[in-house]
# Entry
Amino acid sequence: MARRRNRGVMSEELKYELAKELGVFDTVAREGWGSVPSRDCGNLTKLAIEKAEQMMRDQNQGF
# Structure
């Protein structure tokens, strides 16, 4: 059976940056990611997607 490598898409640095933006960094620092409510994790993912889309729009405007 092939082993799948469990690799995150977002860097740890980006996750912490987004956590600070959403106001959950203190929870993450104190208790870890498992203590962040699922709604906030969803918001973190949504924010990451929005930032990635904005970066793509910015790059496309340069051409």
Observations:
- Residues 55 and 61 are 10 Å apart (CA to CA).
- The chain has a mean pLDDT of 88.
- Helices lie at 12-22, 25-31, 38-61.
